[in-house]
Specification:
8-stranded parallel sheet, about 15% strand, 9 helices, single chain, globular, TIM Barrel, alpha/beta, about 40% helix
Length: about 300
Amino acid sequence: MDVKNTLFYKKSTLNCRGTLLDLGVPVIMGILNLSPDSFYRPQSLKTGKNRTITTDQLLQLAEGMIRDGAGILDIGGMSSRPGAELIPEETEMKRVIPAIEALHQHFPEAILSVDTVRAGVARRAVEAGAGIVNDISGGKFDPELWPTVAELKVPYVLMHMQGTPADMQVQPAYEDVAGTIVDYFADRLAQLHEHGIHDVVIDPGFGFGKTVTHNYQLLHALDQFKIFGNPLMIGISRKSMICKPLAVNPAQALNGTTALHAIALSKGVSILRVHDVKEARECITLMEQYDRIAV
């Protein structure tokens, strides 16, 4: 078997604070969203009216994700759903930093990612145990974020978004959605390299300033992003690109999520950012089986 022709062949690794994450087989990033305004909350989390997650609940959810095969845990304290506004940095800190400290203490071998657009939060998070910075803004919201990531020497997730969460779904428009994002990555990656940031994952930003049609055009064109040689991450879990065509709500969108994950994996995606780790792992396992037989 010529391994270079297999579906999942990758040379990439990510150096996460001294721990090498091998992306030779797709990796699952489990979503741990601490915002009470998140568009989806796992049914296993029984929260009160303020939808606050306790530390015990967070650790239980994380333990299950690790057991089910998550290679990364992504911790965020601010909702980025359509219409969401930026919250005060102090509020984000209070949600994220104690959570990362607790996760790092209880699961010291786990690779933790912080989902933030702010340099201050990124710095504190890495000091607390995070090993990746996941930035939906592409460095546009805080000019100090890229210099901070360069100083911290951790991998960086570069995402595309048209507009901001507050206005991104107000009539988003593209002449060529995939071509626009290819150009965006080419420009931003060059700038990141100038900052000394080379361990970069790219994320086309499904649902961030895109219509349902844009999202499916982007899904169809995912293999275009191979030209950069960077690991590719997608976050489509239970999003409206699944809910709207199927006329379901996010709680009913797991089957549709898995179907689209299979398509994305066939196009070379390295990281799946998901709410449901077990089902994503099963999808990867079956795609690996298919790939071995196909070769």
